[in-house]
Amino acid sequence: MLKNMTDAHKQTLLNLIAIGLLATVLELSSRFFFLGALRKWGFFLLYIISSKEVLLKAFKNLKRGSALDENFLMAIATITAIIIGEYLEAVAVMLFYSFGELFEEIATHKSRENIKSLLDLVPDVARRVLENGQTEEVDLDDIEVGDILLVRDGEKIGVDGKVVEGSASLDTSSITGESMPVEVEVGDEVISSSLVNQGIIKIMALKEFDDSVAAKIMELIEDSASSKSDSEKFISKFAKIYTPIVVAFAILLGIIPPLFWGGVWQDYLLRAATFLVLSCPCALVLSVPLSFMSGLGLASENGILIKGSQYFESLAKADVLLTDKTGTLTTGKFAIRDIQIEEGFDRDEVLDYLYNIELMSTHPIAKGIVKNLNRPANKKLFTELVNEKGLGVCAKTTAGKEVKVGSSKYINLTETSSRAIYMAIDGKLCASVFVEDEIKNGAKRTLTKLKKIFKEIAIVSGDSQKAVGETAQKLGLTKFYAEVMPDEKLRIMKTYQANGHPCIFVGDGINDAPVLKNADVGISMGDTASDLAIESSDILITNGEFSQLARLMKIAELTNSTVRENIIFIMIVKILILILGLLGHANMWMAVGGDVGVSIVSILWAMRILKKKI
Fold first, then answer.
1. Which of 126, 339, 347, 541 is the most exposed place for a label (fewest CB within 10 A)?
2. What are the structural domains, with CATH classification, of the chain?
3. How far apart are CA 514 and CA 522, in angstroms?
4. Is 324 a catalytic residue?
5. What is the chain's mean pLDDT, rounded?
6. d(CA 56, CA 71)
7. In whole angstroms, what separates CA 316 from the centre of its chain?
Protein backbone atom coordinates (compact mmCIF):
# COMPACT_ATOMS: atom_id res chain seq x y z
CA MET A 1 0.00 0.00 0.00
CA LEU A 2 2.76 2.46 0.97
CA LYS A 3 4.51 2.16 -2.40
CA ASN A 4 1.32 3.32 -4.13
CA MET A 5 1.09 6.47 -1.97
CA THR A 6 2.15 9.92 -3.08
CA ASP A 7 3.76 12.40 -0.67
CA ALA A 8 0.35 14.07 -0.27
CA HIS A 9 -1.21 10.71 0.66
CA LYS A 10 1.50 10.07 3.26
CA GLN A 11 1.03 13.51 4.78
CA THR A 12 -2.74 12.98 5.00
CA LEU A 13 -2.18 9.60 6.67
CA LEU A 14 0.15 11.15 9.25
CA ASN A 15 -2.39 13.90 9.95
CA LEU A 16 -5.18 11.37 10.49
CA ILE A 17 -3.01 9.25 12.81
CA ALA A 18 -2.10 12.39 14.80
CA ILE A 19 -5.78 13.35 15.17
CA GLY A 20 -6.61 9.81 16.29
CA LEU A 21 -3.84 9.82 18.91
CA LEU A 22 -4.89 13.25 20.23
CA ALA A 23 -8.51 12.12 20.46
CA THR A 24 -7.46 8.98 22.38
CA VAL A 25 -5.26 10.96 24.79
CA LEU A 26 -8.01 13.56 25.35
CA GLU A 27 -10.66 10.92 26.04
CA LEU A 28 -8.46 8.96 28.48
CA SER A 29 -7.29 12.16 30.24
CA SER A 30 -10.84 13.42 30.69
CA ARG A 31 -11.88 10.17 32.33
CA PHE A 32 -9.08 10.28 34.87
CA PHE A 33 -8.94 14.02 35.52
CA PHE A 34 -12.58 15.05 34.82
CA LEU A 35 -11.67 17.71 32.26
CA GLY A 36 -15.28 18.55 31.29
CA ALA A 37 -14.88 21.91 29.51
CA LEU A 38 -11.43 21.07 28.14
CA ARG A 39 -12.76 17.79 26.73
CA LYS A 40 -15.67 19.56 25.04
CA TRP A 41 -13.61 22.27 23.36
CA GLY A 42 -10.72 19.91 22.62
CA PHE A 43 -12.99 17.51 20.75
CA PHE A 44 -14.72 20.42 19.02
CA LEU A 45 -11.31 21.60 17.72
CA LEU A 46 -10.39 18.08 16.59
CA TYR A 47 -13.77 17.80 14.87
CA ILE A 48 -13.19 21.02 12.91
CA ILE A 49 -9.70 19.85 11.86
CA SER A 50 -10.85 16.36 10.84
CA SER A 51 -14.06 17.46 9.10
CA LYS A 52 -13.06 20.66 7.31
CA GLU A 53 -12.79 18.98 3.88
CA VAL A 54 -16.16 17.25 4.22
CA LEU A 55 -17.90 20.35 5.58
CA LEU A 56 -16.41 22.48 2.81
CA LYS A 57 -17.57 20.05 0.10
CA ALA A 58 -21.05 19.87 1.65
CA PHE A 59 -21.26 23.70 1.75
CA LYS A 60 -20.09 24.06 -1.88
CA ASN A 61 -22.58 21.43 -3.04
CA LEU A 62 -25.31 23.20 -1.08
CA LYS A 63 -24.53 26.43 -2.95
CA ARG A 64 -24.68 24.56 -6.26
CA GLY A 65 -28.04 23.04 -5.37
CA SER A 66 -26.75 19.45 -5.17
CA ALA A 67 -26.44 19.02 -1.43
CA LEU A 68 -27.75 15.51 -0.95
CA ASP A 69 -24.57 13.46 -1.27
CA GLU A 70 -22.37 11.52 1.16
CA ASN A 71 -20.62 14.72 2.32
CA PHE A 72 -23.97 16.23 3.30
CA LEU A 73 -25.00 13.05 5.14
CA MET A 74 -21.73 12.94 7.07
CA ALA A 75 -21.92 16.65 7.91
CA ILE A 76 -25.51 16.58 9.19
CA ALA A 77 -24.96 13.34 11.15
CA THR A 78 -21.82 14.52 12.94
CA ILE A 79 -23.16 18.03 13.62
CA THR A 80 -26.18 16.36 15.23
CA ALA A 81 -23.83 14.24 17.34
CA ILE A 82 -21.92 17.40 18.43
CA ILE A 83 -25.20 19.16 19.38
CA ILE A 84 -26.27 16.28 21.64
CA GLY A 85 -22.81 16.02 23.21
CA GLU A 86 -21.48 12.89 21.48
CA TYR A 87 -18.12 14.53 20.71
CA LEU A 88 -15.95 11.42 20.52
CA GLU A 89 -18.41 9.73 18.15
CA ALA A 90 -18.52 12.79 15.88
CA VAL A 91 -14.72 12.93 15.61
CA ALA A 92 -14.50 9.15 15.15
CA VAL A 93 -17.02 9.21 12.28
CA MET A 94 -15.10 11.95 10.45
CA LEU A 95 -11.76 10.33 11.17
CA PHE A 96 -12.75 6.91 9.85
CA TYR A 97 -14.57 8.45 6.91
CA SER A 98 -11.35 10.33 6.04
CA PHE A 99 -9.43 7.03 6.25
CA GLY A 100 -11.91 5.54 3.79
CA GLU A 101 -11.50 8.51 1.45
CA LEU A 102 -7.71 8.17 1.66
CA PHE A 103 -7.88 4.44 0.77
CA GLU A 104 -10.09 5.31 -2.19
CA GLU A 105 -7.70 8.04 -3.38
CA ILE A 106 -4.69 5.71 -3.14
CA ALA A 107 -6.51 2.95 -5.04
CA THR A 108 -7.72 5.33 -7.75
CA HIS A 109 -4.24 6.83 -8.06
CA LYS A 110 -2.74 3.36 -8.55
CA SER A 111 -5.35 2.47 -11.20
CA ARG A 112 -4.90 5.72 -13.08
CA GLU A 113 -1.11 5.41 -12.95
CA ASN A 114 -1.37 1.97 -14.57
CA ILE A 115 -3.34 3.54 -17.41
CA LYS A 116 -1.53 6.86 -17.67
CA SER A 117 1.90 5.26 -17.65
CA LEU A 118 1.13 4.34 -21.25
CA LEU A 119 0.71 8.02 -22.12
CA ASP A 120 4.48 8.45 -21.85
CA LEU A 121 4.80 6.66 -25.15
CA VAL A 122 6.66 9.27 -27.18
CA PRO A 123 9.30 11.96 -26.61
CA ASP A 124 8.37 15.64 -26.49
CA VAL A 125 10.64 16.48 -29.43
CA ALA A 126 12.46 14.79 -32.33
CA ARG A 127 15.72 15.53 -34.16
CA ARG A 128 15.07 16.47 -37.77
CA VAL A 129 18.03 16.13 -40.18
CA LEU A 130 18.56 19.23 -42.31
CA GLU A 131 19.90 19.32 -45.88
CA ASN A 132 23.37 20.33 -44.65
CA GLY A 133 23.51 17.28 -42.37
CA GLN A 134 22.93 19.23 -39.17
CA THR A 135 19.98 18.43 -36.89
CA GLU A 136 17.35 20.58 -35.20
CA GLU A 137 14.92 19.78 -32.41
CA VAL A 138 11.27 20.05 -33.47
CA ASP A 139 7.92 19.34 -31.82
CA LEU A 140 6.31 16.10 -32.96
CA ASP A 141 3.36 18.08 -34.31
CA ASP A 142 5.72 19.88 -36.71
CA ILE A 143 7.03 16.69 -38.34
CA GLU A 144 5.85 16.18 -41.91
CA VAL A 145 5.73 13.03 -44.03
CA GLY A 146 9.12 12.60 -45.71
CA ASP A 147 11.16 14.29 -42.97
CA ILE A 148 14.37 12.47 -42.00
CA LEU A 149 14.74 12.01 -38.24
CA LEU A 150 17.77 10.93 -36.21
CA VAL A 151 17.15 8.58 -33.27
CA ARG A 152 19.98 7.53 -30.95
CA ASP A 153 20.60 5.04 -28.11
CA GLY A 154 18.08 5.42 -25.28
CA GLU A 155 15.67 7.58 -27.29
CA LYS A 156 12.10 6.84 -28.35
CA ILE A 157 10.83 7.08 -31.90
CA GLY A 158 8.23 9.86 -32.20
CA VAL A 159 6.37 8.95 -35.41
CA ASP A 160 5.87 5.88 -37.60
CA GLY A 161 8.61 5.66 -40.21
CA LYS A 162 11.05 3.62 -42.29
CA VAL A 163 14.76 3.13 -41.58
CA VAL A 164 16.84 4.85 -44.28
CA GLU A 165 20.27 4.64 -42.61
CA GLY A 166 21.86 2.53 -39.88
CA SER A 167 20.61 -0.42 -37.83
CA ALA A 168 19.38 -0.78 -34.28
CA SER A 169 17.85 -3.02 -31.64
CA LEU A 170 14.40 -1.77 -30.61
CA ASP A 171 12.28 -2.31 -27.52
CA THR A 172 8.65 -2.26 -28.75
CA SER A 173 7.09 -3.47 -25.47
CA SER A 174 5.29 -0.18 -24.76
CA ILE A 175 3.05 -0.80 -27.77
CA THR A 176 3.14 -4.51 -28.54
CA GLY A 177 3.99 -5.95 -25.12
CA GLU A 178 6.73 -8.00 -26.84
CA SER A 179 9.68 -8.37 -24.45
CA MET A 180 12.16 -9.60 -27.06
CA PRO A 181 14.21 -6.88 -28.83
CA VAL A 182 13.46 -6.29 -32.50
CA GLU A 183 16.38 -5.84 -34.90
CA VAL A 184 15.81 -3.28 -37.67
CA GLU A 185 17.90 -2.17 -40.63
CA VAL A 186 17.52 -0.10 -43.80
CA GLY A 187 14.10 -0.67 -45.35
CA ASP A 188 12.38 -1.86 -42.17
CA GLU A 189 9.37 0.04 -40.87
CA VAL A 190 9.32 1.21 -37.25
CA ILE A 191 6.41 2.31 -35.06
CA SER A 192 6.22 5.35 -32.84
CA SER A 193 7.08 4.78 -29.15
CA SER A 194 9.71 2.11 -29.93
CA LEU A 195 12.80 2.60 -27.77
CA VAL A 196 16.25 2.35 -29.37
CA ASN A 197 18.19 0.01 -27.08
CA GLN A 198 21.33 -0.09 -29.19
CA GLY A 199 22.38 1.67 -32.37
CA ILE A 200 21.77 4.93 -34.20
CA ILE A 201 19.26 5.13 -37.06
CA LYS A 202 17.81 7.67 -39.41
CA ILE A 203 14.17 7.19 -40.28
CA MET A 204 11.92 8.76 -42.88
CA ALA A 205 8.57 9.81 -41.41
CA LEU A 206 5.74 7.87 -43.06
CA LYS A 207 2.98 9.55 -41.07
CA GLU A 208 2.40 12.78 -39.19
CA PHE A 209 2.28 12.42 -35.41
CA ASP A 210 -1.54 12.60 -35.14
CA ASP A 211 -1.82 9.65 -37.53
CA SER A 212 0.86 7.51 -35.87
CA VAL A 213 0.16 4.34 -33.88
CA ALA A 214 1.22 5.89 -30.55
CA ALA A 215 -1.08 8.92 -31.02
CA LYS A 216 -4.06 6.68 -31.75
CA ILE A 217 -3.36 4.62 -28.64
CA MET A 218 -2.87 7.71 -26.46
CA GLU A 219 -6.24 9.03 -27.61
CA LEU A 220 -7.83 5.69 -26.78
CA ILE A 221 -6.25 5.66 -23.30
CA GLU A 222 -7.40 9.20 -22.51
CA ASP A 223 -10.98 8.25 -23.38
CA SER A 224 -10.97 5.07 -21.30
CA ALA A 225 -11.51 6.61 -17.85
CA SER A 226 -14.25 9.03 -18.95
CA SER A 227 -16.85 6.52 -20.21
CA LYS A 228 -19.06 5.06 -17.49
CA SER A 229 -20.54 1.60 -17.26
CA ASP A 230 -24.25 0.91 -16.76
CA SER A 231 -23.51 -0.06 -13.13
CA GLU A 232 -21.75 3.26 -12.48
CA LYS A 233 -24.62 5.20 -14.05
CA PHE A 234 -27.11 3.22 -11.96
CA ILE A 235 -25.21 3.90 -8.73
CA SER A 236 -25.11 7.65 -9.51
CA LYS A 237 -28.86 7.74 -10.19
CA PHE A 238 -29.52 5.51 -7.17
CA ALA A 239 -27.59 7.89 -4.85
CA LYS A 240 -29.56 10.92 -6.09
CA ILE A 241 -32.90 9.25 -5.31
CA TYR A 242 -31.77 7.31 -2.24
CA THR A 243 -30.11 10.17 -0.33
CA PRO A 244 -33.12 12.55 0.00
CA ILE A 245 -35.32 9.62 1.09
CA VAL A 246 -32.77 8.71 3.78
CA VAL A 247 -32.53 12.31 5.04
CA ALA A 248 -36.31 12.63 5.23
CA PHE A 249 -36.57 9.30 7.08
CA ALA A 250 -33.86 10.33 9.56
CA ILE A 251 -35.68 13.60 10.30
CA LEU A 252 -38.89 11.70 10.97
CA LEU A 253 -37.00 9.19 13.15
CA GLY A 254 -35.54 12.02 15.26
CA ILE A 255 -38.78 14.00 15.67
CA ILE A 256 -41.92 11.85 15.41
CA PRO A 257 -41.34 9.25 18.22
CA PRO A 258 -40.47 11.71 21.03
CA LEU A 259 -43.10 14.20 19.82
CA PHE A 260 -46.03 11.77 19.77
CA TRP A 261 -45.04 8.84 21.97
CA GLY A 262 -42.62 10.45 24.37
CA GLY A 263 -39.04 9.53 25.10
CA VAL A 264 -35.71 11.32 25.42
CA TRP A 265 -35.08 13.68 22.50
CA GLN A 266 -31.32 13.14 22.75
CA ASP A 267 -31.71 9.36 22.30
CA TYR A 268 -33.79 9.73 19.13
CA LEU A 269 -31.55 12.43 17.68
CA LEU A 270 -28.56 10.15 18.23
CA ARG A 271 -30.52 7.31 16.62
CA ALA A 272 -31.27 9.58 13.62
CA ALA A 273 -27.59 10.60 13.34
CA THR A 274 -26.57 6.94 13.56
CA PHE A 275 -29.09 6.09 10.83
CA LEU A 276 -27.63 8.82 8.58
CA VAL A 277 -24.10 7.51 8.99
CA LEU A 278 -25.27 3.95 8.36
CA SER A 279 -27.26 4.84 5.27
CA CYS A 280 -24.47 6.83 3.60
CA PRO A 281 -24.02 5.34 0.09
CA CYS A 282 -20.33 6.21 -0.12
CA ALA A 283 -19.25 2.54 -0.09
CA LEU A 284 -21.25 1.95 -3.28
CA VAL A 285 -20.29 5.29 -4.81
CA LEU A 286 -16.59 4.58 -4.22
CA SER A 287 -16.22 0.84 -4.79
CA VAL A 288 -18.14 0.38 -8.05
CA PRO A 289 -16.22 2.97 -10.14
CA LEU A 290 -12.99 1.90 -8.45
CA SER A 291 -13.56 -1.73 -9.43
CA PHE A 292 -13.95 -0.74 -13.07
CA MET A 293 -10.98 1.63 -12.86
CA SER A 294 -8.87 -1.23 -11.45
CA GLY A 295 -10.05 -3.45 -14.30
CA LEU A 296 -8.97 -0.83 -16.84
CA GLY A 297 -5.60 -0.59 -15.08
CA LEU A 298 -5.06 -4.36 -15.09
CA ALA A 299 -6.05 -4.58 -18.76
CA SER A 300 -3.64 -1.79 -19.76
CA GLU A 301 -0.87 -3.48 -17.77
CA ASN A 302 -1.47 -6.56 -19.96
CA GLY A 303 -1.36 -4.58 -23.20
CA ILE A 304 -5.15 -4.37 -23.65
CA LEU A 305 -6.55 -0.86 -23.98
CA ILE A 306 -10.28 -0.40 -23.34
CA LYS A 307 -12.08 2.82 -24.28
CA GLY A 308 -14.49 2.74 -21.33
CA SER A 309 -15.63 0.68 -18.36
CA GLN A 310 -19.01 -0.02 -19.99
CA TYR A 311 -17.31 -2.56 -22.26
CA PHE A 312 -16.63 -4.88 -19.32
CA GLU A 313 -20.38 -5.41 -19.04
CA SER A 314 -20.81 -5.62 -22.82
CA LEU A 315 -18.16 -8.38 -22.97
CA ALA A 316 -20.08 -10.35 -20.35
CA LYS A 317 -23.38 -10.03 -22.25
CA ALA A 318 -22.03 -11.04 -25.68
CA ASP A 319 -22.68 -14.66 -26.71
CA VAL A 320 -21.39 -14.60 -30.32
CA LEU A 321 -17.76 -14.05 -31.35
CA LEU A 322 -17.08 -13.15 -34.98
CA THR A 323 -13.49 -12.84 -36.13
CA ASP A 324 -11.63 -11.84 -39.26
CA LYS A 325 -8.97 -14.25 -40.55
CA THR A 326 -5.93 -12.54 -42.09
CA GLY A 327 -3.98 -10.54 -39.51
CA THR A 328 -6.34 -11.63 -36.73
CA LEU A 329 -6.28 -15.43 -36.54
CA THR A 330 -3.31 -15.58 -38.89
CA THR A 331 -0.10 -13.59 -38.96
CA GLY A 332 -0.58 -12.13 -42.44
CA LYS A 333 2.86 -13.60 -43.18
CA PHE A 334 3.14 -16.43 -45.67
CA ALA A 335 4.93 -19.75 -45.33
CA ILE A 336 5.62 -22.52 -47.86
CA ARG A 337 3.25 -25.43 -47.49
CA ASP A 338 4.60 -27.49 -50.42
CA ILE A 339 6.89 -27.17 -53.46
CA GLN A 340 6.25 -29.34 -56.47
CA ILE A 341 9.22 -29.62 -58.89
CA GLU A 342 8.29 -30.72 -62.40
CA GLU A 343 9.98 -33.77 -63.90
CA GLY A 344 13.19 -33.06 -65.80
CA PHE A 345 14.35 -30.13 -63.64
CA ASP A 346 17.11 -30.13 -61.03
CA ARG A 347 15.61 -29.34 -57.60
CA ASP A 348 18.66 -27.50 -56.20
CA GLU A 349 18.99 -25.36 -59.33
CA VAL A 350 15.28 -24.44 -59.26
CA LEU A 351 15.35 -23.56 -55.56
CA ASP A 352 18.51 -21.46 -55.98
CA TYR A 353 16.86 -19.48 -58.75
CA LEU A 354 13.64 -19.12 -56.76
CA TYR A 355 15.39 -17.99 -53.57
CA ASN A 356 17.64 -15.40 -55.22
CA ILE A 357 14.84 -13.93 -57.35
CA GLU A 358 12.48 -13.60 -54.36
CA LEU A 359 15.34 -12.14 -52.32
CA MET A 360 15.02 -9.04 -54.51
CA SER A 361 11.26 -8.65 -53.88
CA THR A 362 9.42 -6.93 -51.02
CA HIS A 363 6.12 -8.76 -51.62
CA PRO A 364 4.78 -10.55 -48.46
CA ILE A 365 4.71 -13.93 -50.26
CA ALA A 366 8.29 -13.42 -51.49
CA LYS A 367 9.42 -12.63 -47.94
CA GLY A 368 7.79 -15.84 -46.72
CA ILE A 369 9.49 -17.94 -49.41
CA VAL A 370 12.91 -16.43 -48.63
CA LYS A 371 12.44 -17.04 -44.91
CA ASN A 372 11.40 -20.66 -45.47
CA LEU A 373 14.04 -21.60 -48.06
CA ASN A 374 16.96 -19.91 -46.30
CA ARG A 375 19.55 -20.78 -49.01
CA PRO A 376 22.89 -19.10 -49.80
CA ALA A 377 22.54 -15.75 -51.55
CA ASN A 378 24.23 -15.50 -54.96
CA LYS A 379 24.04 -12.14 -56.71
CA LYS A 380 26.05 -13.49 -59.66
CA LEU A 381 23.31 -15.89 -60.79
CA PHE A 382 21.56 -13.26 -62.91
CA THR A 383 22.64 -10.66 -65.42
CA GLU A 384 19.26 -8.99 -65.63
CA LEU A 385 16.16 -8.82 -63.41
CA VAL A 386 12.87 -7.08 -64.27
CA ASN A 387 9.97 -6.68 -61.82
CA GLU A 388 6.64 -6.57 -63.66
CA LYS A 389 4.33 -5.14 -60.97
CA GLY A 390 1.24 -7.21 -60.22
CA LEU A 391 2.45 -10.16 -62.29
CA GLY A 392 5.91 -11.34 -61.27
CA VAL A 393 9.65 -11.17 -61.91
CA CYS A 394 11.63 -12.08 -65.03
CA ALA A 395 15.38 -12.81 -64.74
CA LYS A 396 18.16 -13.69 -67.15
CA THR A 397 20.75 -16.12 -65.80
CA THR A 398 24.48 -15.99 -66.59
CA ALA A 399 23.91 -19.17 -68.62
CA GLY A 400 21.39 -17.34 -70.79
CA LYS A 401 18.21 -18.92 -69.39
CA GLU A 402 15.01 -16.91 -68.88
CA VAL A 403 13.44 -17.50 -65.44
CA LYS A 404 9.97 -16.24 -64.56
CA VAL A 405 8.38 -16.29 -61.10
CA GLY A 406 4.84 -15.03 -60.52
CA SER A 407 1.13 -15.57 -60.99
CA SER A 408 -0.47 -18.20 -63.19
CA LYS A 409 -1.38 -15.49 -65.68
CA TYR A 410 2.29 -14.46 -65.91
CA ILE A 411 3.39 -18.05 -66.55
CA ASN A 412 0.46 -18.67 -68.99
CA LEU A 413 -1.18 -21.49 -67.01
CA THR A 414 -4.85 -22.49 -67.09
CA GLU A 415 -5.33 -24.88 -64.13
CA THR A 416 -4.08 -23.06 -61.05
CA SER A 417 -4.52 -22.61 -57.31
CA SER A 418 -5.18 -19.24 -55.70
CA ARG A 419 -2.74 -20.23 -52.95
CA ALA A 420 0.31 -20.77 -55.21
CA ILE A 421 2.94 -18.96 -57.25
CA TYR A 422 4.65 -20.51 -60.24
CA MET A 423 8.10 -20.63 -61.80
CA ALA A 424 9.06 -21.27 -65.42
CA ILE A 425 12.45 -21.71 -67.09
CA ASP A 426 12.58 -20.82 -70.79
CA GLY A 427 8.79 -20.88 -70.94
CA LYS A 428 8.33 -24.31 -69.29
CA LEU A 429 6.70 -24.72 -65.89
CA CYS A 430 9.36 -26.01 -63.48
CA ALA A 431 7.88 -25.46 -60.02
CA SER A 432 4.62 -24.74 -58.18
CA VAL A 433 5.03 -23.16 -54.74
CA PHE A 434 1.99 -23.54 -52.50
CA VAL A 435 1.87 -21.02 -49.67
CA GLU A 436 -0.31 -20.55 -46.62
CA ASP A 437 -0.95 -17.77 -44.17
CA GLU A 438 0.52 -18.88 -40.81
CA ILE A 439 -1.93 -19.28 -37.92
CA LYS A 440 -0.94 -17.23 -34.89
CA ASN A 441 0.64 -19.03 -31.97
CA GLY A 442 -1.93 -20.07 -29.39
CA ALA A 443 -4.94 -19.21 -31.60
CA LYS A 444 -6.38 -22.75 -31.49
CA ARG A 445 -5.81 -23.08 -27.74
CA THR A 446 -7.47 -19.70 -27.20
CA LEU A 447 -10.51 -20.66 -29.27
CA THR A 448 -10.88 -23.86 -27.23
CA LYS A 449 -11.13 -21.71 -24.09
CA LEU A 450 -13.48 -19.20 -25.74
CA LYS A 451 -15.88 -21.98 -26.83
CA LYS A 452 -16.77 -22.37 -23.14
CA ILE A 453 -17.84 -18.70 -23.03
CA PHE A 454 -19.62 -18.09 -26.35
CA LYS A 455 -22.58 -19.90 -27.89
CA GLU A 456 -21.12 -19.48 -31.36
CA ILE A 457 -17.73 -18.55 -32.85
CA ALA A 458 -17.37 -17.93 -36.57
CA ILE A 459 -14.74 -16.66 -39.02
CA VAL A 460 -15.95 -13.88 -41.30
CA SER A 461 -13.40 -13.23 -44.06
CA GLY A 462 -13.05 -11.88 -47.57
CA ASP A 463 -10.56 -14.64 -48.42
CA SER A 464 -11.43 -17.62 -50.64
CA GLN A 465 -13.73 -20.45 -49.54
CA LYS A 466 -10.84 -22.92 -49.59
CA ALA A 467 -8.45 -20.74 -47.60
CA VAL A 468 -11.04 -19.82 -44.93
CA GLY A 469 -12.33 -23.40 -44.78
CA GLU A 470 -8.83 -24.78 -44.22
CA THR A 471 -8.14 -22.24 -41.49
CA ALA A 472 -11.45 -23.01 -39.77
CA GLN A 473 -10.71 -26.74 -39.89
CA LYS A 474 -7.24 -26.29 -38.39
CA LEU A 475 -8.70 -24.18 -35.59
CA GLY A 476 -11.53 -26.59 -34.83
CA LEU A 477 -14.31 -24.23 -35.99
CA THR A 478 -17.33 -25.43 -37.95
CA LYS A 479 -18.86 -22.04 -38.77
CA PHE A 480 -17.28 -19.66 -41.27
CA TYR A 481 -18.22 -17.10 -43.91
CA ALA A 482 -15.85 -16.64 -46.88
CA GLU A 483 -15.51 -14.26 -49.84
CA VAL A 484 -17.59 -11.59 -48.05
CA MET A 485 -17.32 -7.87 -48.72
CA PRO A 486 -17.33 -5.29 -45.87
CA ASP A 487 -21.07 -4.63 -46.25
CA GLU A 488 -21.73 -8.38 -46.14
CA LYS A 489 -19.68 -8.70 -42.92
CA LEU A 490 -21.89 -6.02 -41.39
CA ARG A 491 -25.06 -7.73 -42.63
CA ILE A 492 -23.97 -11.08 -41.13
CA MET A 493 -23.32 -9.51 -37.74
CA LYS A 494 -26.57 -7.53 -37.75
CA THR A 495 -28.49 -10.74 -38.45
CA TYR A 496 -27.08 -12.21 -35.22
CA GLN A 497 -27.91 -9.02 -33.32
CA ALA A 498 -31.45 -8.93 -34.69
CA ASN A 499 -31.95 -12.45 -33.32
CA GLY A 500 -30.98 -11.30 -29.83
CA HIS A 501 -27.30 -12.25 -29.86
CA PRO A 502 -24.91 -9.47 -28.75
CA CYS A 503 -21.75 -9.74 -30.86
CA ILE A 504 -18.04 -9.23 -30.40
CA PHE A 505 -16.11 -8.66 -33.62
CA VAL A 506 -12.33 -8.98 -33.86
CA GLY A 507 -10.52 -7.53 -36.87
CA ASP A 508 -7.67 -5.37 -38.08
CA GLY A 509 -8.19 -4.08 -41.62
CA ILE A 510 -9.80 -1.01 -43.16
CA ASN A 511 -12.55 -3.30 -44.47
CA ASP A 512 -13.30 -4.31 -40.86
CA ALA A 513 -13.99 -0.74 -39.70
CA PRO A 514 -17.78 -0.71 -40.38
CA VAL A 515 -18.40 -3.96 -38.53
CA LEU A 516 -16.05 -2.98 -35.65
CA LYS A 517 -17.98 0.26 -35.24
CA ASN A 518 -21.38 -1.48 -35.15
CA ALA A 519 -20.44 -4.47 -32.99
CA ASP A 520 -21.54 -4.57 -29.36
CA VAL A 521 -17.80 -4.74 -28.69
CA GLY A 522 -15.30 -4.12 -31.49
CA ILE A 523 -11.75 -5.37 -30.87
CA SER A 524 -8.83 -4.40 -33.12
CA MET A 525 -5.45 -6.11 -33.37
CA GLY A 526 -2.74 -3.54 -32.69
CA ASP A 527 0.26 -4.78 -34.61
CA THR A 528 -1.55 -5.09 -37.93
CA ALA A 529 -4.58 -2.84 -37.34
CA SER A 530 -5.24 0.04 -39.71
CA ASP A 531 -5.76 3.53 -38.28
CA LEU A 532 -9.43 3.34 -39.19
CA ALA A 533 -9.82 -0.04 -37.44
CA ILE A 534 -8.24 1.36 -34.24
CA GLU A 535 -10.53 4.39 -34.30
CA SER A 536 -13.63 2.25 -34.96
CA SER A 537 -12.93 -0.31 -32.24
CA ASP A 538 -13.78 -0.24 -28.53
CA ILE A 539 -10.79 -2.30 -27.42
CA LEU A 540 -7.25 -2.45 -28.78
CA ILE A 541 -4.98 -5.46 -28.27
CA THR A 542 -1.63 -3.74 -28.66
CA ASN A 543 0.53 -6.75 -29.53
CA GLY A 544 -2.06 -8.18 -31.92
CA GLU A 545 -1.96 -11.65 -30.35
CA PHE A 546 -5.29 -13.47 -30.62
CA SER A 547 -4.45 -15.29 -27.37
CA GLN A 548 -5.00 -11.98 -25.55
CA LEU A 549 -8.76 -12.46 -26.06
CA ALA A 550 -8.82 -15.17 -23.39
CA ARG A 551 -6.94 -12.83 -21.04
CA LEU A 552 -9.39 -10.00 -21.82
CA MET A 553 -12.40 -12.18 -21.00
CA LYS A 554 -10.81 -13.23 -17.68
CA ILE A 555 -10.16 -9.59 -16.74
CA ALA A 556 -13.75 -8.68 -17.66
CA GLU A 557 -15.13 -11.55 -15.56
CA LEU A 558 -12.88 -10.63 -12.61
CA THR A 559 -13.97 -6.98 -12.81
CA ASN A 560 -17.68 -7.70 -13.19
CA SER A 561 -17.66 -10.30 -10.38
CA THR A 562 -15.84 -7.86 -8.09
CA VAL A 563 -18.53 -5.23 -8.74
CA ARG A 564 -21.31 -7.75 -8.00
CA GLU A 565 -19.60 -9.04 -4.86
CA ASN A 566 -19.04 -5.52 -3.53
CA ILE A 567 -22.66 -4.49 -4.14
CA ILE A 568 -24.03 -7.65 -2.47
CA PHE A 569 -21.65 -7.36 0.50
CA ILE A 570 -22.37 -3.65 1.04
CA MET A 571 -26.15 -4.02 0.80
CA ILE A 572 -26.32 -7.04 3.16
CA VAL A 573 -24.24 -5.31 5.84
CA LYS A 574 -26.11 -2.00 5.42
CA ILE A 575 -29.56 -3.60 5.66
CA LEU A 576 -28.66 -5.65 8.74
CA ILE A 577 -27.19 -2.70 10.65
CA LEU A 578 -29.98 -0.35 9.48
CA ILE A 579 -32.53 -2.73 11.00
CA LEU A 580 -30.55 -2.75 14.25
CA GLY A 581 -30.35 1.06 14.12
CA LEU A 582 -34.10 1.46 13.66
CA LEU A 583 -34.68 -0.81 16.68
CA GLY A 584 -32.21 1.21 18.76
CA HIS A 585 -29.59 -1.54 19.01
CA ALA A 586 -26.89 0.14 16.89
CA ASN A 587 -24.75 2.95 18.30
CA MET A 588 -22.58 5.46 16.44
CA TRP A 589 -19.56 3.15 16.63
CA MET A 590 -21.46 0.39 14.87
CA ALA A 591 -22.55 2.98 12.31
CA VAL A 592 -18.90 3.86 11.69
CA GLY A 593 -18.07 0.18 11.21
CA GLY A 594 -21.09 -0.33 8.97
CA ASP A 595 -20.21 2.60 6.73
CA VAL A 596 -16.50 3.35 6.77
CA GLY A 597 -15.48 -0.22 7.59
CA VAL A 598 -17.55 -1.56 4.72
CA SER A 599 -16.13 1.13 2.42
CA ILE A 600 -12.54 0.19 3.28
CA VAL A 601 -13.21 -3.53 2.81
CA SER A 602 -14.91 -2.96 -0.55
CA ILE A 603 -12.12 -0.61 -1.69
CA LEU A 604 -9.45 -3.18 -0.77
CA TRP A 605 -11.47 -5.88 -2.55
CA ALA A 606 -11.56 -3.70 -5.68
CA MET A 607 -7.84 -2.93 -5.39
CA ARG A 608 -6.95 -6.62 -5.41
CA ILE A 609 -7.76 -6.62 -9.13
CA LEU A 610 -4.53 -4.70 -9.74
CA LYS A 611 -2.49 -7.45 -8.07
CA LYS A 612 -3.93 -10.27 -10.15
CA LYS A 613 -1.73 -12.18 -12.57
CA ILE A 614 -3.82 -13.20 -15.56
1. 347
2. 2-115+225-295+557-611 (no CATH), 125-211 (2.70.150.10), 331-439 (3.40.1110.10)
3. 10
4. yes
5. 80
6. 9
7. 16
